[in-house]
Design brief:
The complex is a heterodimer of chains A (about 280) and B (about 290). With about 280 residues, chain A is mainly alpha-helical. Helices cover about 70% and strands about 0% of the residues of chain A. Classes of the chains: A mainly alpha (about 280), B mainly alpha (about 290).
Chain lengths: ~280, ~290
């Protein structure tokens, strides 16, 4: 697209650059500040701004003097298992919704999406009581199950779009050749949607890894995830700002890398497959 | 039959979520607390108490204010930035790559990072503020600016969401109407108002639906930055229900608030989705021209 269609076309290119840089500063400086603080020693925390003797002490302390490493591990385990379960259950569902016409299809698809309309707390409160009885509070199983609310609708809706994009004739031809329903699925369609599948899975992972409320209220000492443990660094009596920054950086880095990997599919993913970027 | 077999596992998993939902509705007619499993059925008392309480309507106004300002500013700012980024030069290319970072970082981390920015002793923002005579500005600790400070975090995180959706929409626009408009000599604003905006409507509506849906139920950002305080200045419905259930153990009393919030989000999204369907239809007619 050229700039003719631009409401801001009247603006000089210098003004445009200035506006963009101002926004970029707003968007990126907080992350840069987190990076700076994470390398700043406690002794210089309050006396210096940009110029100081960088140290790795904050990173060492976060791992050695707190249970941050364990909470990172918990977050990884819960998120990976949650996405895995979503893939097992969600891929066939997306296949059915994307490739077949049947009565009530749109209603079923919308039902999966509508779980997103419910405030997380509304699910958590009754689930808390049920988990209490099933002894699932503070358990990996309990968190993986409730994380399906985050990852399953997202996965089904993104993948459904990818399945819809595939040509219908191809599968029909394969079926004429004597392939069964499942063979068509595994041998033909699955390899074709693989890039979409990887992107959808990684996006689900990012959202599980980022989630906070479920882990805060249904988790506990044994399953505390890194997002929950991070808020405790600030709440403690002697706040080590460098620790907070280092922990936040460690937690944020994998997501930024993953986001760069799936950039191409991000529009589709973030809009639940509705906008095909 | 086959599609239903394929859908079965997902249904089984989500029934585990639907059952609690029904349980919640049941408990809203009781006096169930978080601590004891004994309860009596008390009818619609919890609903009457909630909907006649000024505290509840205060929370509703906080929630609406939060969602209105956050979503509104994100939509306008996001669309503006997308228009600026819709060009092929090195700065746009680079920014398209890095501007999504705030969106990918956990909202909790976003809230923490802004606390590191606005902290009175280590926050970098204390310098520019003191130059313009606002050295004592206390951000989320100031009752008058707490909601603003929290909304700012939401804007920081979610503006990139609107940007990348709007950019995708801009890039899929057909070129021929623009060529025609240029021949007719339309001004940049006229072209934007009469061509770009109507054709972008479906994508912008999707962005609006997702932003409203999330900001109306936002919990993590507010919890990690203010926990509803100072006082009740950022006490949204979600946070108020959390403290009813988990701080005051008034489990049954918290459910009517959440059911209200849920019904409200559902209604708003339902209306916007029907608008979106209409916009998409007229959008496609335009494409065929």
């Amino acid at each position: 697209m050229k700039q003719e269609g631009n409401a801001l076309g009247g603006l000089g290119s210098a003004a445009k650059t200035v506006l963009l840089i101002l926004y970029a500063l707003f968007a990126l400086f907080p992350l840069l500040w987190m990076l700076i603080l994470s390398f700043k020693p406690d002794s210089e925390m309050f006396t210096t701004t940009f110029i100081f003797t960088p140290t790795l002490e904050n990173f060492r302390a976060v791992f050695a003097e707190s249970d941050f490493l364990r909470t990172l591990w918990n977050n990884l385990v819960v998120s990976v298992l949650a996405v895995g379960l979503s893939l097992v259950a969600g891929v066939p569902a997306a296949y059915a919704l994307g490739r077949f016409d049947f009565k009530g299809k749109e209603d079923i698809a919308f039902t999966f999406l509508s779980f997103k309309f419910a405030p997380e707390i509304l699910v958590i409160i009754p689930l808390y009581l049920i988990y209490q009885q099933l002894h699932l509070i503070d358990s990996i199983v309990g968190l993986v199950w409730v994380y399906q609310l985050i990852s399953l609708p997202l996965l089904i809706w993104i993948l459904r779009g990818f399945f819809e994009d595939l040509s219908k004739d191809m599968a029909a031809a394969a079926q004429l050749d004597g392939y069964s329903w499942w063979q068509v699925f595994f041998k033909m369609l699955l390899p074709l949607v693989k890039p979409g599948l990887v992107a959808a899975g990684l996006l689900c992972f990012i959202f599980c890894w980022n989630s906070f409320t479920f882990a805060l209220l249904l988790g506990g000492g044994n399953t505390r995830t890194s997002t929950v443990s991070m808020t405790r660094f600030l709440a403690s009596d002697t706040v080590h700002y460098g620790w907070v920054a280092a922990a936040a950086l460690i937690c944020a880095l994998p997501e930024i890398i993953l986001a760069l990997l799936i950039q191409k599919h991000l529009v589709r993913g973030l809009s639940f497959g509705v906008v095909k970027g | 039959m086959q599609p239903f077999i394929a859908l079965a596992p997902s249904f089984l998993l989500t029934i585990g979520i639907l059952i609690p939902f029904i349980v919640a509705i049941f408990y809203s007619f009781t006096d169930r607390t978080l601590r004891s499993s004994a309860f009596n059925i008390i009818g619609i008392g919890n609903f009457v108490d909630t909907f006649t309480s000024p505290d509840f309507w205060h929370s509703v106004s906080i929630t609406l204010g939060y969602a209105f300002w956050a979503t509104g500013i994100e939509m306008v700012l996001g669309l503006g930035i997308a228009l600026l980024l819709n060009e092929e030069n090195w700065l746009s290319k680079f920014l398209r790559l890095v501007l999504i970072f705030p969106l990918m970082v956990a909202p909790v981390i976003g809230a923490l990072v802004w606390q590191l920015m606005t902290n009175p002793s280590v926050g970098i923002l204390r310098f520019p503020l003191s130059w313009i005579g606002l050295g004592g500005f206390r951000w989320s600790a100031d009752p008058n600016y707490a909601l603003f400070s929290v909304v700012l975090i939401d804007i920081w995180i979610y503006t990139p969401f609107v940007v990348i959706l709007a950019l995708a929409g801009l890039r899929s626009l057909p070129k021929s109407p623009y060529e025609a408009a240029l021949i007719d000599g339309g001004s940049a604003w006229f072209i934007f108002r009469n061509l770009t905006l109507p054709m972008l409507a479906p994508v912008l509506l999707i962005a609006l639906i997702f932003r409203l849906m999330t900001s109306l139920q936002e919990f993590a950002i507010i919890f990690a930055s203010t926990r509803g305080g100072p006082g009740d200045r950022t006490l949204s419905v979600a946070i108020a229900a959390y403290s009813q259930a988990f701080s005051f153990y008034n489990l049954a009393g918290s459910i009517p608030m959440l059911l209200f919030l849920w019904a409200f989000i559902y209604a708003v999204c339902f209306i916007l989705i029907s608008y979106w369907r209409k916009a998409q239809k007229s959008h496609c007619e335009r494409c065929r021209l």
